[in-house]
Design goal:
This protein is of the alpha/beta class and 491 residues long. The protein has helices at residues 31-37, 69-80, 96-110, 134-159, 167-175, 189-194, 198-204, 261-275, 321-333, 348-354, 366-379, 390-394, 415-418, 424-435, 476-487, and strands at 3-7, 16-20, 46-52, 56-62, 86-90, 126-130, 183-187, 212-218, 231-241, 282-291, 303-305, 311-313, 339-344, 359-363, 383-385, 403-404, 445-449, 455-456, 470-471. The chain has 15 helices and 19 strands.
Length: 491
């Protein structure tokens, strides 16, 4: 992780990046060079200047207009100084919040994912932030550092190959969070069998690595935190998804090592809350399994009894995510949370609808929906509200069980993507049966279908971070901001 250090003294022997905000003049020492190069801050980009200020390298970094402009500039600065591994951002004249945004962008760019080759890609390792008042800025940098560690934890988990992160390995990695005051509870196959969690058990049945249900608890420390209802995060943690008996095509299947990005984001958010000592109590319920093929794999046409007691007709074993989430949502309801937010790389159809720009947002509570949307807008992890209509639930009627878990194969056209094209709304309708069952106590619930935004490619999206290809950690910052804005005031 990038080491951030505040200083009020310039470092003379390392490269420096100077952010230039729209409408502000380029510092006098750099102005002639910027004019000669035609540098315009509002257009973004970085201009390298050699031999200025005592012979060291300097970078002028343009800050584009908009809420993410400073973060993108920080990322560009980190990318520009990567070969040096140690750099300075001259942030004098900026507010603590503006400096934090620069540091966030730099940290997002500089994070190095797990790498098993002989040489790791170059990345900035230490960043000195040259500020006017280090003491006044320190609380903001502490907050940024906590969130960056949470995002980094999630990105690292999602980047691991499936042979390095089995369900057992995943649970072991989560136990490391105990060092930060998070209570970790791991339930294995026998516990799941005793409690009838038929969805999670079925999905994990074909693998030599049995499933796990992991519960993470952060107690908070508000005046009544011991009795306060926690906010609950629920995550899909499929460490590899072959599609099961309804096997996926080979093309692109290697990306299915990241089908646990939802669970990783929930865990990363819990770490961020703990590191910044959030007063709000929180709990995460993570359904972890490998959807493999084997002699005991579950099959299309099977009927499963879920932890809630509802029976489910299996239509396609490649729609496994909603089955494990259903049991996790049922478990989360039993913890009596004040709200539930689930994250999952769930459907290809949400990518067809929203591309790689936004995640889909479903739910049963307008206030929670709006707060979640606002949190995503604030941190640049964008959402778009999607419907759960009466017909979406009617599509899941089964003749032999309480519900079927997806539309019949071929309902959307040929091929792997085609069979789920109309299915994101039906998946949400299925999950609602377990998150907000009819006649039960109403708990505000939001479902985030993050397929399409869990991976990023460098320079592919206008205004996006210039991140290296790989897991984005989408959801960590959103959940952290949601807790800060909506739930910490209640703690």
């Amino acid at each position: 992780m990038l080491k951030l250090r505040l200083t009020e003294l310039p470092r003379r022997r390392v490269p420096v990046a100077v952010p230039v905000l729209p409408g502000r003049a380029v510092p006098e020492a750099y102005a002639p060079f910027a004019a000669a190069a035609g540098f315009e801050a509002a257009k973004g980009g970085a201009l390298r200047l050699d031999g200025v200020l005592g012979g060291r390298t300097a970078w002028l970094v343009g800050v584009t207009p908009g809420p993410q402009g400073l973060e993108v500039a920080g990322a560009l600065a980190a990318a520009s100084m990567a070969e040096a591994r140690h750099g300075v951002i001259d942030a004098r004249g900026l507010s603590a919040r503006q400096i934090g945004a620069l540091a966030m962008g730099a940290g997002m760019r500089a994070h190095r994912l797990p790498h098993y080759g002989a040489e790791r890609p170059a990345a900035l390792r230490q960043l000195d932030l040259l500020v006017d008042d280090a003491d006044a800025t320190e609380p903001e940098i502490a907050r940024v550092s906590a969130v960056l560690r949470g995002v980094g934890f999630a990105r690292d988990l999602a980047a691991e190959p499936a042979n390095k992160l089995t369900p057992t390995d995943f649970a072991d990695r989560l136990r490391e969070l105990e060092a930060h005051g998070i209570e970790v509870e791991v339930h294995g196959r026998h516990w799941l069998e005793r409690h009838g969690y038929g969805g999670l058990l079925a999905v994990g049945r074909g693998s030599d690595h049995p499933p796990r249900l992991v519960i993470l608890r952060w107690p908070g420390h508000g005046p009544d935190h011991e009795h306060a209802a926690p906010v609950a995060f629920i995550g899909k943690g499929i460490t590899f998804d072959t599609g099961g008996i309804s096997i996926k095509p080979a093309a692109g299947m290697e990306a299915m090592k990241g089908d646990m990005a939802g669970a990783a984001a929930c865990a990363g958010a819990m770490l961020a809350l703990a590191l910044r000592d959030s007063p709000a109590p929180a709990v995460a319920v993570l359904a972890i399994a490998e959807n493999a093929t084997g002699a005991d794999s579950y099959r299309p046409g099977d009927v499963l009894r879920m932890g809630s007691g509802m029976t489910v007709e299996v239509v396609d074993t490649d729609a496994e995510g909603r089955l494990v989430l259903a049991d996790a949502l049922h478990h989360a309801r039993g913890l009596k949370p004040c709200a539930m937010i689930d994250l999952a790389t769930l459907t290809g159809s949400i990518v067809s609808a929203l591309g790689h720009h936004r995640a889909g947002l479903f739910g049963n509570d307008p206030a929670l929906r709006d707060a979640t949307m606002a949190a995503g807008d604030a941190v640049g992890e964008l959402l778009w509200p999607m419907p759960i209509g009466t017909k979406h639930r009617a599509d899941l009627a089964s003749e032999i069980a309480d519900i079927r878990h997806c539309l019949p194969v071929g309902g959307g056209g040929p091929g792997w993507a085609g069979k789920f094209l109309p299915d994101a709304c039906q998946a949400a309708a299925f999950l609602r049966e377990f998150a907000a069952p009819e006649g039960a106590d109403a708990i505000p619930w939001a479902h985030l279908d993050i397929a399409g935004v869990d991976l990023r490619e460098e320079d592919k999206e206008a205004g996006a971070y210039p991140l290296p290809p790989g897991p984005s950690g989408y959801g960590v910052r959103l959940l952290d901001r949601l807790v800060a804005d909506r739930f910490e005031a209640l703690a």
